[in-house]
Design goal:
Elements: E1 4-10, E2 21-27, E3 30-36, H1 49-52, H2 54-58, E4 68-70, E5 79-81, H3 84-102, E6 107-111, H4 118-131, E7 134-137, H5 145-154, H6 160-163, E8 171-175, H7 179-182, H8 184-195, E9 199-203, H9 209-212, E10 216-218, H10 225-238, H11 244-250, E11 256-258, H12 267-270, E12 279-282, E13 287-290, E14 302-305, E15 308-312, H13 313-321, H14 326-333, H15 337-349, E16 353-357, H16 367-381, H17 399-403, E17 413-416, H18 417-425, E18 434-438, H19 442-445, H20 449-456, E19 462-467, E20 479-482, E21 491-494, E22 499-503, H21 516-527, H22 536-544, H23 556-561, E23 564-565, E24 622-625, H24 641-646, E25 651-654, H25 656-661, E26 669-674, E27 677-685, E28 693-696, H26 720-725, E29 735-741
Parallel strand pairs: 6-7, 6-18, 7-17, 8-9, 8-16, 9-10, 18-19, 19-20, 24-28, 25-27
Antiparallel strand pairs: 1-2, 2-3, 4-5, 4-20, 11-15, 12-13, 14-15, 21-22, 22-23, 24-29, 25-28, 26-27, 26-29
Length: 742
């Protein structure tokens, strides 16, 4: 009689960073069933179909089983089986040689998102630091526009802690997010609120499953969300619904802006030996004074400070907002003016009102302006959850010593993924000549992938990839190293819920597969820093040793007993005298002096880079979006039979009106094309897609298309503003195409 054991682990599949708890049933050494695991608070007990299908990936016959070295030209698919020692010796020798010729920064580690536990992700960054190489950030793979907007405005990478974390909201606006299909932990509280009578509004260019649950749906033209936010702000000001007390206390609204150069007025501008203090106009004193000395700061107006003409930041914002009455915002966005007025009044008066955002708005060329505009709308109305002492408290791991174990030596150089293109092809800002890709299907998922294959990869002297399967990317590698599924190694995960979980190893790695951490642990001694690489469990202990109150009392041993709840931040009064935002001023900065030269000091609306209003639209009149699928996470789970049974092939979704004008019928073969390339696939007519828009769900591998693939037709334009504020973002929803019957 076989004995069944049950191991509690967690899924790091990255579908909204949900980190679902899992009970893995093991019989005779094989995982036979997965089910959701209880939490101390079972409100967070859940699992999705993707998580349940993890066993299919673990035991899939197509899994990579041993290290392989390229035997032919890149892309030919000719391989030679090698031992682990041979593979690691070869890699170490090549890394030393390339670093010797071009410098250590010429070796880059590009580490992705799906399946990313804390230890696995951190270990690669630690390795890049020990090598003093380049760590490629993958935020720019479609997600960087939010931190490009949120970081300079609120001092954080994500806006939700400030805009949606209210205990009892009276209105929920879901803006550019479809959590019903892509983030179940986000949709649950929203639907709970709806059951209590809280109105739910969805703003999206596609009528999604989430939109079908809403009380009100707001269809919007792609890439015009900033104009909608500005139109709402116009109505707020017209009805005098702005929260002036909030603006004075927590934003840069009263700060003086020089009209000669667009910079904040500082004490040194008026006094020869003055400091860096920001100045405001004190109405009582009738002069410009330092922020810390203000008694009666002016919120509006034009003032003369010495011989320098200045306006308050809020005055400049007001002047911008006056350019966007609801009628003009309606012309830009396609949203009826009366709907803009109604939505603005509800958001300003039904307080607290929450805005949930995600990466639907991020994937346009000017997505950063969208997030800045939405964040400014929240500040204008006072719909912001203020941070307590030290800011919004989340888990604080021991990242400093973890990522830089050699405290007396330089660490890695950070580079955005889109900047990697130019570093490889043009040597700008410095040459990259070797790349290690881990848990990222780089060729499949990055825009303009023809450039990657034809112009980037030929410049690399070494390409290493760790993978479970032979993907569209691995065929271009020089060395492919087999790794296990999350059931085969230990890690630590935390999600949107207030728990840290141990992702416990359920079974030993199959075949010759190793965990990413073990691979790095065996490679490190070959490069002279083996002392800094430990086991997964030792790394968990190191990360938890931060001394921060959020993880106080949480250890490896406590996590082995089950999920551990983060310690709650201290409770603060509803409106403290000061709030701690991690910006240069310590306030919400809707005005950015560093972007004045680009005309983006304020969150203006700018047309999408490939707009239906541009001359290019005469040739390619359809805007293409690439929505997420509930059946896969980016390009993961494509090998799952259960997922493929429900979603067997890629389809182009288009409105019947566009199809009829092109004599296209449902299920016809069509070609989607622009100057960059062509994709051939079947079409599905769908009235949830607006006229003038087509959708091609992202993540499909080239082999699933009849011809071509999605990222042959996406652009890789770099937004200079994003280069300044964080890193440039791939504008995956900012592409014009045409469709014809094949």
């Amino acid at each position: 009689m076989s004995i069944e054991t049950i191991v509690r682990t967690a899924c790091p599949a990255h579908c909204g960073n949900n980190a679902c708890g899992i009970l893995a049933h093991v019989c005779e050494g094989k995982v036979v069933k997965l089910e959701p695991s209880p939490f101390p608070d079972n409100y967070y007990m859940r699992i999705c179909q993707k998580g349940l299908s993890a066993t299919q990936l673990t035991y899939h016959p197509d899994r990579l089983q041993y290290p392989m070295k390229r035997a032919g030209e890149r892309g030919q698919g000719k391989w030679q089986r090698v031992s682990w020692d041979e593979a690691l010796d070869y890699i170490a020798a090549k890394l030393k040689d390339i670093a010797g010729k071009y410098g250590s920064r010429s070796v880059a580690w590009a580490i992705g998102g799906p399946g990313t536990g804390t230890v696995k992700f951190g270990a690669y960054t630690r390795f890049a630091g020990c090598f003093q190489g380049t760590r490629v950030s993958m935020w720019g793979y479609g997600d960087a526009a939010e931190p490009c907007g949120a970081k300079p405005t609120y001092g954080v990478n994500r806006l939700p802690p400030f805009l949606s974390s209210f205990d009892e909201p009276k209105l929920n606006i879901l803006w550019g997010t479809n959590p019903t299909e892509s983030n179940p932990f986000q949709i649950r509280p929203v639907l709970d609120d709806k059951m209590k009578g809280v109105k739910m509004v969805v703003i999206d260019p596609v009528y999604t499953i989430t939109a079908s649950k809403a009380d009100e749906y707001v269809p919007i033209r792609i890439g015009t969300d900033a104009a909608l936010a500005l139109g709402m702000m116009h109505q707020v000001l017209q009805d005098r619904m702005e929260d002036r007390d909030f603006l004075l206390r927590y934003t840069v609204a009263p700060y003086l802006i020089r009209q000669d150069n667009g910079r904040y007025l500082r004490e040194r501008d008026l006094i020869s030996n003055g400091g860096d203090a920001y100045l405001v106009w004190d109405s009582a004193a009738g002069k410009a004074v330092a922020v810390d000395s203000m008694k009666s700061p002016a919120l509006d107006g034009l003032y003369q400070a010495g011989n320098i003409a200045c306006k308050t930041a809020f005055q400049m914002l007001e002047e911008l907002i006056q350019e966007y009455p609801p009628s003009r915002a309606s012309e830009i966005t396609g949203v009826p003016a009366e709907q803009i007025v109604r939505l603005a009044r509800a958001y300003a008066t039904d307080k607290p009102a929450a805005i949930y955002v995600n990466n639907g708005m991020s994937r346009t060329y000017h997505g950063d302006l969208t997030f800045r505009a939405v964040g400014t709308l929240a500040a204008l109305t006072g719909n912001v959850k203020l941070p307590g002492p030290g800011g919004h408290r989340e888990v604080e791991y021991n990242w400093g010593p973890f990522l830089k174990p050699r405290a007396d030596q330089p660490s890695y150089t950070r580079m955005g993924v889109m900047n990697l293109y130019n570093a490889i092809e043009k040597g700008e800002p410095y040459p990259v000549r070797a790349a290690w890709f881990a848990f990222t299907n780089f060729v499949n998922q990055c825009t303009n992938n023809r450039r990657i294959v034809e112009r980037l990869f030929p410049k690399l002297e070494l390409i290493v990839m760790t993978e479970m399967f032979m993907t569209p990317s691995t065929k271009y590698a020089d060395i492919v190293l087999p790794v296990g599924s999350f059931l085969e190694f230990t890690d630590m995960v935390n999600g949107p819920h207030p728990y840290i979980q141990l992702q416990r190893q359920v079974i030993p790695p199959l075949y010759e597969a190793k965990s990413d951490v073990q691979i790095l642990r065996e490679l490190a001694p070959r490069l002279g820093f083996g002392e800094f690489f430990k086991s997964e469990e030792e790394f968990v202990e190191l990360l938890l040793a931060s001394g921060d109150s959020s993880v106080k009392g949480i250890t490896l041993e406590t996590l082995k007993k089950g999920p551990a709840k983060l310690n709650s931040p201290p409770v603060i009064e509803a409106r403290p005298a000061k709030a701690s935002f991690k910006t240069p001023t310590g306030r919400i900065e809707f005005y950015l002096e560093k972007l004045v030269s680009l005309g983006e000091g304020l969150p203006v609306h700018k047309e999408p880079v490939e707009s239906p209003l541009s001359p290019l639209a005469e040739k390619y009149p359809l805007s293409m979006v690439c929505v997420h699928s509930k059946f896969h996470v980016h390009s993961s789970f494509q090998k799952s039979p259960w997922m493929r049974e429900q979603d067997p092939e890629p389809l182009l979704e288009m409105n019947r009106a566009d199809a009829d004008s092109r004599r296209i019928k449902d299920a016809d073969l069509v070609e989607v094309f622009n100057d960059r390339g062509t994709v051939k696939l079947k079409v599905r007519l769908n009235e949830a897609i607006q006229p003038g828009v087509v959708n091609l769900t992202h993540g499909w591998w080239p082999e699933e298309f009849i011809e071509g693939d999605l990222n042959l037709i996406t652009n890789d334009y770099i937004n200079p503003a994003q280069n300044i504020t964080f890193e440039p973002n791939m504008p995956m929803n900012d592409n014009l195409v045409e469709v014809r019957k094949a």
